Amino acid sequence: PQFSMARIQQTSAEILGSQGLIMAEDASAVLIHESSTPASYYRYLYEAKLKGRDAMCNMDRGGFGQASNGTNFACMFDGVSSSGLAGAHAAQAFTTYTLQKLKETYAKFRQGEGVNESLARIIFSGCCAERSNKFATTEAEGGSATGVFAVIERIGKRLVLNGACIGDASCIVIQPRGVARVLSPVVRSDARDPGGVVAMSFGLDGPVWSFSEPVAPDDLIVLCTDGLTDNVSYVELTQILPLIVRAGVFDDEPLTACPCLHERTPRHLPCLQHLREILPEAVLQPAARVSCAHAAMRLKNYVKWVTRYSHDVEADYYSTQIKLKQARTVEERDAIQAKVDRLEQARAGQAQVEKTDDCAVIVMSALHKLDGGP
């Protein structure tokens, strides 16, 4: 009964593009809905389909809820780009369904059962079941997405983070002492393989991973997609993420940030040593004082910093592709095609390092301070 009164905030189904900052009243849960993908990419792919509407589309969709028993919960889905705009609509429908389902099934968490793979599959399978997901629209048909959800269970004085993921969506816990734990394994053949999806047309494809881990009230719980994790050196991810969330230089976007970021924009994924050279301990905020809002903003701006070079190349490439479509003479087409060929070589050089992508992230605490909270 307490959980059924949960406050839910999420990305809007009415807006395809990025929606910026979505924050709980007490700031104990924050969603940053942004992208490092250039606008020209969306115009090239979707402008004709959207028929004059703003040709922006963020495939990442998510939201969080705050229960009157004082706990937070959240989910994040990433529409697979190969399914086009349907991927974004599917991810939004999966988000809305999962948040509602977590409200309805919370009693099972409170009984100490946690999230086992069976329960996780019920939730993920319900996302794409026509009868159960009333939030799915015809625009979502054929769409698919990776996904992750997390909910806090109170067992006496203990707090347990229960959840599950499918594909390369992730749940990561960052502790105040500067240590991170990745709770969701990413198993895929290459960077183009999502590792598993929830699909509107055929259900679940790939393994579902469940987790149940103790957390503390001052831990930062991060839900994200490959837009973040693919832009961090994965072998050092558990050390790099705590460093990023403590770095106040990432409070502003890289275009206006401090000179050390301007001068050292990486042309490859920075390793831990590189970041420590730029961000010595003396300039870092104490981990225990990092808020959810600061952590989310810093993670987003880190991605925009590390992808600046790729963003510029991609923006030029797709703008040139649009011009190629509009060329009226053979001479004009040949000149533009020559530039496209050069840019394709530049893009190929970035294929194995950082990548532009939608980079939404949710950061929340286990507990909130609204009605009934501690």
Summarize the structure.
This protein is α+β, with helices and mostly antiparallel strands and 374 residues long.
> SSE string, helix = H, strand = E?
EEEHEEHHHEEEEEEEEHHHHHHHE
Point out poorly predicted stretches.
none
What's the main sheet like?
8 strands, antiparallel
Please give the count of helices.
11
Radius of gyration: 21 Å
Q: How helical, in percent, are the residues?
A: 25-40%
Tally the beta strands: 14
Describe the structure.
- The protein is α+β, with helices and mostly antiparallel strands and 374 residues long.
- The chain is built from 11 helices and 14 strands.
- Strands 1, 4, 5, 6, 7, 10, 11 and 12 form an 8-stranded antiparallel β-sheet that branches. Strands 2-3-14-13-8-9 form a 6-stranded antiparallel β-sheet.
- Helix 1 packs parallel to helix 10 (308-326), helix 2 packs across helix 4 (117-127) and helix 10 (308-326) runs antiparallel to helix 11 (330-349).
- The chain starts with 6 loop residues before the first strand and ends in a 10-residue tail after the last strand.
